[in-house]
Specification:
41% of the residues lie in helices and 27% in strands. With 311 residues, the chain is of the alpha+beta class. The longest helix is centred in the N-terminal third of the chain and has 37 residues, at 13-49.
Length: 311
């Protein structure tokens, strides 16, 4: 039977039937999709509620909150303990410099020696043991902030420099970020976040804070914020991931107390000592946090280690 209304407006009834069929198919697909989502949600809900009624679920959630509060308390206590350990270690003798020499022309075998012992603030003493045919004589000179109020002999000054600036480092393995070679803040933050995410995703974080590699040639031009790479140390040599080897050897080392970015004076003193002693350097400076925001409440308590390989 032909519709007068459709004839009047000039619409073919077949077109309407086709559109209604399409609409029915679309609605059917949406219904199937909604049903599948509902079933997945129902399955997840049943798994979550399995073996639990309202009361036991509430008790379980209270237990989890109690556990979280305990974790927070432990973290706060750990911070206090780390701060106390840092305070004690700051004044322990941890820098050593030894120089062996012949005190007298008639003596051989370099049986005399100078031993420099310093704490993290470069306070300590120098012990000079002079061996002769008649016996062994020892002298002690006090060191305050890396300096002596008494004139130092050549061997004593050498031992003091070794204690302050030199440190032997074994071979270390590092996971590197994408190359940077820029001081653009947004690029630095983006690269750092990507690097941390990559290490966490692949379980490559051994508990060390991340660090930064800076090109020595850039540093000597005063470009202190031009990073080459970020790195994360790993304990064992990675088998399935690209990595960088920090070579074993002697490094010129300085410690920066305070804000991570206030490194200009520290680098100046480090390179001055390197140049005065005629050392050559490796390509990179390694800058790594020893005490960071996880262990300290303010940037004044941060401790950063800066090392450059020397030859």
């Amino acid at each position: 039977m032909e519709s007068k209304i459709l004839s009047t407006i000039g619409i073919d009834p077949g077109i309407i039937i086709i559109l209604m069929l399409i609409l029915i198919i679309v609605l059917f697909i949406l219904t199937v999709n909604v049903t599948m989502n509902y079933n997945r949600l129902k399955s997840s809900y049943q798994t979550f509620m399995k073996g639990k009624d309202g009361k036991t679920l509430e008790e379980s959630m209270k237990e989890r909150y109690t556990d979280l509060e305990s974790v927070v308390k432990v973290v706060k206590q750990n911070r206090l303990d780390i701060r106390e350990l840092n305070r004690k270690m700051d004044r322990n003798y941890q820098k050593i410099g030894v120089v062996k020499y012949d005190a007298f022309n008639e003596m051989g075998g370099k049986l005399s020696f100078v031993l420099a012992l310093l704490d993290n603030r470069n306070n300590g003493f120098i012990l000079n043991a002079m061996h002769s045919r008649e016996g062994c004589y020892t002298y002690v000179k006090e060191i305050v902030k890396g300096e002596s109020f008494v004139e130092l002999a050549e061997e004593e000054a050498e031992a003091l420099d070794k204690a302050i600036f030199q440190e032997y480092t074994p071979e270390e393995y590092m996971i590197l970020s994408d190359p940077l070679n820029t001081n653009d803040h947004e690029a630095i933050i983006h690269t750092l976040c990507s690097h941390i995410g990559y290490c966490n995703k692949n379980n490559l974080n051994a508990g060390h804070p991340y660090g930064a590699m800076l090109d020595v040639s850039e540093l000597r031009q005063g470009h202190l914020d031009t990073y080459a790479y970020f790195f994360t140390k790993v304990i064992d040599r990675p088998e399935d991931f690209p990595f960088h080897i920090k070579p074993a050897g002697t490094y010129a080392v300085a410690y920066l107390k305070g804000d991570y970015y206030d490194s200009e004076e520290t680098y100046r003193k480090l390179f001055q000592w390197i140049d005065e002693n005629g050392f050559r350097t490796g390509q990179y400076s390694y800058k790594e946090a020893i005490i960071d925001e996880l262990a300290a409440d303010s940037s004044e308590e941060y401790l950063t280690k800066i090392s450059v390989q020397i030859f």
